[in-house]
Amino acid sequence: MLDWFQQLDHHRFYPFFLRSIDYLQHHKLWVLVHLAVLSVLTFWALTTGRSSAQSPRKMSSGPPQVDLRPPKDDPITIEELSRFDGSDPSKPIYVAIKGIVFDVSAKREVYGPGGSYHVFAGKDGSKGLGKSSLKPEDATSDYSSLDENESKVLADWVSFFKKRYNIVGKVVNKTVNL
């Protein structure tokens, strides 16, 4: 077991080794205090010493910062809403949920033609959002058939949209939910 030790250059290493052992034996309290301080500093550096750019918790907390204008309650008919489906790049893209019309133009790649949620563009897609369905037949304003869990999903979508997109109006002549 001591073969590795015997192979070392004893003339250089052994005196240093003995001095180190001797120092540790005579200064136990000093060594323990310094180890404790070093441990605390290391812990602090690993937990709080990060910049905000390096901290994944700070980067992912909360929704992205969006400057939202005060909500509007301009009346928008279903026919008018259908003109804002993203097919005309010069017009904004609108999505309505529970009769609230949101301007989702900032995410044209998502709601515009070819986007994953284009099925909701220019429509009140409340039922489809509540059901988590991308089927065109589910992208309707009548969400009265949603069960309790689906209604909660729909409420979560409304909350999500209110934090990220400007409200530009209210759908008029939509299916009334009793």
From TrEMBL:
InterPro entries listed in its UniProt record: Cyt_B5-like_heme/steroid-bd (IPR001199), Cyt_B5-like_heme/steroid_sf (IPR036400), MAPR/NEUFC/NENF-like (IPR050577)
Alphabetic keyword roster: Membrane, Transmembrane, Transmembrane helix
UniProt keyword Transmembrane helix, yes or no: yes
Annotated ranges, domain Cytochrome b5 heme-binding: 76-172
GO MF annotation terms: heme binding
Domain of life: Eukaryota
TM region(s), chain numbering: 29-49
Pfam families, per database record: Cyt-b5
GO cellular component, as recorded: endoplasmic reticulum; membrane
Protein family (similarity comment): Belongs to the cytochrome b5 family. MAPR subfamily.
Family matches, as PANTHER family: BINDING PROTEIN, PUTATIVE (AFU_ORTHOLOGUE AFUA_4G06240)-RELATED, MEMBRANE-ASSOCIATED PROGESTERONE RECEPTOR COMPONENT-RELATED
Protein name: Cytochrome b5 heme-binding domain-containing protein
The species this protein was found in: Austropuccinia psidii MF-1
